[in-house]
């Protein structure tokens, strides 16, 4: 994996390491990006096809639901064809877990709360220990908080909201601790913890509390976040906040849409926080305003699609006004500063061409391809590799 | 404004208060959501139409660019028709600022770095003081960091990345301090500060540093974040992290698309972090997986559109499997738990109807409308108003 630790990584909370197949999670490992298939697992071709797409988009490990015997029966072939490790998501029936372990699953997700017979849970733990694979132990607000626990009301709005979230978090952690004891009684420490809620504030507070109590690696996620338009914001808000605090060893963004978008958003989040190296072009652009003299939305969309063929983390800027345009254009590897009817193309801060509006897209793309080639040949360095070192001349005032 | 402080708000960093027209920013005020028009400001009808849409979507104040005399000439009429306060974005020409103040603008955005004559900056400050309006003083990485400052290179990758970001932040803060001194020398404290970059990590580190040095209110933003697909993630990642740390008094999310989306995302972010009360339905939904037995994406999209007519912050759940479905359905105000060919409709945790798949959408909508009406008449309370109080039976283990 082309992943590295920078700023935030340095402050990451120390956890134990587990391994999901070839992918380490926790410890010194980079934050692992995961998703879940939305196909029927017993449909091997559809499932493998979706996993392959998710992997190509940057997904490190993938989870599949195995509600039925026919789903676990499909697992060996899915695992054989999958380019990334496969996690079996088990609920209610412990046999599915045993079958998944036997099928070669790289990790089991288990909610001990919905397998009522403790001996069955113990049997799954033994099977995972024998196979040397970890178990994710998760609680979801929806599955642990009983209706009656929600019943008491308070009068004062502000106290109430604070109290509600705080109490939900306490209920979730109590349940999680109960589950963890089962694993500890079995001397099984190969676990990853999760505590999800649809409420980003509950998620943030729950993981903060858990990270102070346990050193197991943490799987972050906002569950049932909703449609993509709002679910994306809820997921990113909670996960970014936690990751920036050094909390989180593997993440899943989830909302009601094709999981490929979850992976794209997750990858962008990790790259944005410098918890993962970019391997593809980074596009920056004006948001546009009343100063703009060109159809920038259209140009940005076209540039984005064109750049998708380039496999190098070059920084490309599409700027449309004189306020920040020249500065951003100079700071990028390749840029266009688009004015009325013409555009100036920059490469590493130097103006290299002036072209007509109609030529801008192709000219920018040509220079981007050429620059990426020069980087590959070692003839140029990325702007992100440069450092502003001129030391402050005066000490900043306190 | 229907905005309140809860969890995070309690930890918010204390700042001075300024007023943008009727909207307070900083101090005890709720986080203010702003956007910027993408129309030509001199096109009064188009600009007012866009402002009206942005305001209806939840935008508290709006910024317009005034590059030319004809733009400031349009300001009085725009301000007269605008339902929200209007900020004039000024660059290069101090006359535009003076004209905007005379036109009744509620705030001026000024970058003293691009008005070279100090006497001109002083004149704008005097005009704003006389008019009693604040000035936003901003630095952008692109406009303050000179090419030569980016030149020196380091050998070790990790040190380098750390050094680069750190040095960029130092350069930005040095420049901002230089600007602030101009205002302090004029005894003008009615300022809002901003320090933007396209890099979320630079934004986070810059605002953290600024919040420790100054008590002026802060305007948060990631600039030139790019196309919506990636720009949204970059903006939310930085702003959520800062807001969760109590930093930020007004926010703008910006990316290259219709600003209505910026406002929608910004509102969802503030609601997600409980820095703003919801006034509309909150939709939670399964992300779907191999357990699902219904076309949930389609149902969620349809439900989302139907709910848009309801003006009450009811919590609606669309769930598709037995793992978390019943729990989430019980926790919501109105819910459908959709299985093969049929759906169970819940209202406040009680199963009220079982309907066919074809009837689910209408049945859910009917119950949602009816419930919202009961809330308005004071006959029902929102689930979000309830508290889980059952006290922990055992003290959580340390």
Features:
homodimer, 42% helix, five-stranded mixed beta sheet, disordered C terminus, 2 domains, Sulfite Reductase Hemoprotein, domain 1, elongated
User: How far is the first residue's CA from the last residue's CA of chain A?
Assistant: 42 Å
> Architecture of the largest domain in chain A, according to CATH?
Alpha-Beta Barrel
* Structural class label of chain A: alpha/beta
The fraction of residues assigned to DSSP E strands of chain A is 15-25%
CATH homologous superfamily label of the largest domain in chain A = Dihydropteroate synthase-like
Question: What is the general shape of chain A?
Answer: elongated
Mean pLDDT of chain A: 87
Lateral strand order in the biggest sheet of chain A: 8-7-6-5-4-3-10-9
Number of domains of chain A: 2
């Amino acid at each position: 994996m082309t992943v590295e630790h920078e700023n935030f990584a340095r402050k990451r909370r120390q956890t134990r390491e587990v391994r999901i197949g070839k992918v380490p999670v926790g410890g010194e490992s980079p934050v692992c990006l995961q998703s879940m298939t939305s196909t029927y697992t017993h449909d091997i071709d559809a499932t493998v096809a979706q996993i392959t797409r998710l992997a190509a988009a940057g997904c490190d490990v993938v989870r599949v639901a195995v509600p039925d015997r026919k789903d676990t029966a499909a697992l060996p072939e899915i695992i054989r064809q999958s380019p990334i490790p496969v996690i079996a998501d088990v609920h209610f029936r412990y046999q599915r877990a045993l079958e998944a372990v036997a099928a070669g699953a790289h990790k089991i997700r288990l909610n001990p709360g919905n397998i009522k017979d403790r001996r069955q849970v113990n049997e799954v733990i033994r099977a995972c220990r024998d196979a040397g694979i970890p178990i994710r132990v998760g609680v979801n607000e929806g599955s642990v908080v009983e209706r009656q626990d929600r019943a008491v009301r308070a009068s004062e709005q502000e106290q109430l909201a604070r109290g509600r979230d705080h109490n939900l978090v306490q209920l979730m952690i109590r349940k999680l601790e109960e589950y963890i004891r089962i694993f500890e009684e079995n001397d099984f420490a190969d676990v990853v913890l999760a505590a999800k809620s649809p409420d980003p504030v509950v998620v943030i507070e729950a993981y903060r509390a858990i990270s102070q109590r346990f050193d197991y690696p943490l799987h972050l996620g906002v569950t049932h976040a909703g449609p993509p338009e709002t679910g994306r914001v809820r997921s990113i808000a909670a996960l970014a906040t936690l990751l920036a605090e050094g909390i989180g060893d593997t993440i899943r963004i989830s909302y009601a849409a094709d999981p490929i978008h979850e992976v794209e958003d997750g990858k962008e989040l990790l790259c944005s926080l410098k918890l993962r190296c970019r391997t593809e072009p980074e596009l920056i652009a004006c948001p546009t305003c009343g100063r703009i003299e060109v159809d920038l939305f259209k140009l940005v969309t076209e540039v984005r699609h064109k750049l998708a063929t380039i496999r190098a983390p070059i920084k490309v800027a599409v700027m449309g006004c004189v306020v920040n345009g020249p500065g951003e254009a100079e700071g990028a590897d390749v840029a266009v500063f688009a004015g009325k009817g013409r555009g100036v193309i920059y490469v590493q801060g130097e103006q290299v061409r002036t072209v007509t509006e109609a030529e801008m897209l192709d000219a920018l793309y040509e220079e981007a391809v050429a620059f990426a080639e020069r980087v590959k040949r070692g003839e140029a360095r990325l702007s992100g590799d440069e450092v502003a070192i001129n030391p402050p001349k005066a000490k900043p005032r306190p």
